[in-house]
Predict the structure.
Amino acid sequence: MWRLLSILFGCIFMMPVHGVIHGEPMPIEQVSTGQLHVEQLKWYGGTNTQVTEHDECSSVVVGTHPLTVLTVSHCLRDSKINPITRTPVVKIFLGRPVPAIRAALYNRFNDVENNLAADLAVLIFDGDAPEGIEAIPVVNSLSASQALLCGYGRGIDDHQIENPRCAVKPLLSAEEDFYQFVPQFYEQLDPLLHLQFRAQFLAKHAMISSPSALLAVSRVQNERYQFELPMPTRGDSGGPWIVNLQNGQQGVIALTSFVETFYRKNKQWPFFNENRAPLMDFPYAAFGVRLDTVEAQALFTRARLEGADIHMLSE
């Protein structure tokens, strides 16, 4: 079933998600978004060998004393474990030196596999945030109609980036009809392919206790799929969904969890003919795991007992 949820996560459980394609670069200090570098140890059964690999995800600073960041747990799925501290071998890039990681609280892959609302992780560092890096508080309610999505993902032809890229996106519910993501116009052109992607889209409902735990964004405008619109991609997993609050503050309401992409092309849908990009650059839906759920609050409670500094406020 995981094969149906193609690409995203700094490991969409299988492949990492890239930054916000076509997004605008933003100063790290403005959006408190860091890049995670995860050292992984993967087992290849065909050769009976373990291989060290590296993956990248995104994260957001939610506390500064000590430095505390949120990301998604699937990014840590295959991470090496430090034999002394028993923490994942992870480094965070915030544009300046940061302390070493002290503790990591996250749900194991089996838990996430059974409930995507559990795709969250809290990383606690052994010292305060560097000067100039502020916390963005977690918002425990939601009334916003749009959010600023940030991350270090990038398209297949993009080079390494040193600042997160961000884009304002209208928010949808994960319970929205599939036509909100792939409009009926395309069903008329190729009914079978449209049906196949609908099945992929609906598969996530088997992996979450309540679809309300997810937010979503699409690439649809004026009833058409628009390739040029910014969307999360490989490397964006764990990146924040930021809203502006009535008091002028910013708050984070969700983290990029996974992206669904078209897994094959056809000649009937015009946008495939107009763009030669590989399929990984054709996401049609991206989902963010909300931070106001029972699962999130339980994790935050555990993290605070370990000394995490998690700022929170109501919208």
Q: What stands out?
A: The two ends are 36 Å apart (CA to CA). Helices lie at 28-31, 109-114, 184-189, 191-203, 270-274, 294-305. Residues 38 and 90 are 5 Å apart (CA to CA).
